[in-house]
Amino acid sequence: MAYIFLRFWLMLMCPVGVLSSSVPVVKRSEGLDVAGSLLRSVGAVLIKGGGQIPTAKEFETLAVSTWQAAGFPGLELGNYNKFGTVKRSMVSEGIYDVAAGAPAHLPVSPHSEQAYLHQVPRFCSFVCMRPAEVGGELQLFDNVMLGTALGNLTDKFAKLGLTYFRVMGDQIHSANWSYATGMWQDRFGTPSWAEAKRLARADAMMGGSSGAELGPGPEGTVVLNWTVPAVTWINTTSSSGVKPVRAVLQSILDSHKSVNYGTGIPALHSTWGDGTEFDDLELEALRAAVAQSQWASLKLEEGDVVVVDNWHYAHGRSPYEGQRKHAALISDRFPRNVKSAQEACV
């Protein structure tokens, strides 16, 4: 396990062609229309706060106004815990503490926020309230570049999709379950197993029209699993105009059981959409392609806010030392675009 983490981290730290200055920078005083224009054309923007940490409401306004100015008027703040499978500690309404999952000495595997859901937040945003003494860079990974680097595996992702698994505790049979996936009775708001299974099957936000499947797990736990598309079409802007391209929108590595941060039963897992496991060569190819897709590495300063197109870029974090305090928020969610505009017209 330690070897896998170390090897993956070294790949992420030493990718080819990564520019720490890839993300365009604006000052908060320049106005959010400027930030929105950059977000629309590039997919991410760093808003410098000059060392002034925004209040929770100011952070929300900065993020929401920026993505609305990027061409998404009316798109509001999303509720992370309402549909997420891991409960986050909330800093304020709609704003959550990012310090969950990976301990400081390990990297956070690249993922698009809540890409394990059928409907995925279109944008996410991060604010730095205290940078780590050493490390702790916010890393961004280009999902379009990932799709290209994966080659034939992208076609396989498009065909099969991805299945995600979440292990939850049972208040009676595994009462000591402590992972943030929680207890199934709390997740579904009922002590009735039959009702919980019905609610899972009806959960279109998680699994689309097929919903999710709830069943027994090991050692008195229960397992929730569902399947989602892995490939989406997004519009990119270049000198030649707007072009639809394929992006691999995923949360594979941070969900895979090989990256289990705790001990005992892995709470998270991911497989191909037909339920088959990723083999060693496929995981190695995925890790190499993710490393190749790294686009930016940012050591945020106090008051910095980054707004990211969550469909275009995945994010991760490098290991760090000392105290680090970052918070995040998400926009409302949309189903993936599984067909390009051209395909939809055929």
From TrEMBL:
GO terms classed as biological process: antibiotic biosynthetic process
InterPro entries on file: AlphaKG_dependent_hydroxylases, TauD-like_sf, TauD/TfdA-like
Domain of life: Eukaryota
Signal peptide annotation: 1-20
Coiled-coil region list: none
Gene Ontology molecular-function annotations: oxidoreductase activity
Name of protein: TauD/TfdA-like domain-containing protein
Origin species: Symbiodinium pilosum
